[in-house]
Amino acid sequence: MDIPQFDPLTTTDPLPLVARKIWAQEIQTVIAYEPEVRQAATIKGVHESRKAMRRLRTSFKLFAPYFQPDALRPFNRTFRRTMRRLGPARDLAVFSQKLDAYRQQDTLPPEHAPPLNTLATYITQQRLEADNQAKLAFTHKRYQTGLPKFLAFLHDTNRHNQTYTPMDPHQIRHILPILLYQKIAYVRAYDGHVATCSDTELHQLRIEFKQLRYTLRFFSPLLDTPETSLLKELKQHQELLGDFNDASVALDFLTNITIPDDNPLLIQGINLYQTVQKQQLIHLRQQFLIQWNNFLSSSWFHNVATAVACL
């Protein structure tokens, strides 16, 4: 079934229609990269597919109140499981890229090269297995049956919508300020706690930043400000926390490697790179704390208020 074609967003669109317009754009990205993932599990294909599916799942949560209960649950489950099947390929690709960058530093002690090269060879072998799994992600029954159902849901613009009266707030201009400030509230709730947050809590803050950024991205054509002016600063925070999460994931991966007794170079390489990741976590935490304090004192919140005033 074809992806439905919708007119651009307008401020008077009802929420169920707004949702379908956004979902049509995101599923178009997923479908566009599907052949690339199936054939070669390229880094870009896997990454862009996962991002689009994550945006879909974020928007399911955002728009769930405007549909009948559980109407979106099967679609959310389909994309969640597909994302999980693509996850190891993405994580190991990032691990490999950052390990390669570290190995190529001029300041790397010569005696560290052999064990880190051995670790890189091991990661390459693991990536082959993860890439093969990613190539099959779109062939699983849940995705194969779920995608046509989702496209049919997009085409039928009255299906499973919540009912409302003309006096109920149901247009995007009625609801968008509330949606944005709810997402902002989840981020600002960390104020006063960031300095003592655990790694898990910082990961959750990254998710809150990401959901806020996606919400702004969805509705940027309707806001009285250039898209980049609001999204750029959020992206900086999200990317820094993303680097923190990558280091945390790398450390967990290194900790859980089953090390053969007859490979001392691999053992040494793991120990060396574990130390690197621990130092990276300390550095990134300090860097984010500075960035967070600057964010709270910036004009970003005033700019949001100005942007939504046009609605």
Explained architecture:
- The structure is a single chain.
- The chain has ten helices and no strands.
- The model has no long low-confidence stretch (mean pLDDT 93).
- Helix 3 crosses helix 8 (227-255).
- The two termini are 35 Å apart.
- It has 311 residues and is mainly alpha-helical.
Shape: globular
Q: What's the average pLDDT?
A: 93
Amino- and carboxy-terminal Cα gap = 35 Å
| Helix-strand topology string | HHHHHHHHHH
**Radius of gyration of CA atoms, rounded to a whole number:** 22 Å
Major sheet attributes: none
Which short descriptors sum up this protein?
about 300 residues; globular; mainly alpha
What would you say about this model in short?
The chain has ten helices and no strands.
Q: What is the topological layout?
A:
Elements: H1 15-40, H2 43-63, H3 73-103, H4 113-135, H5 141-155, H6 172-188, H7 199-219, H8 227-255, H9 264-296, H10 300-308
Helix pairs in contact: 1-2, 2-3, 3-4, 3-5, 3-8, 4-9, 6-7, 7-8, 8-9
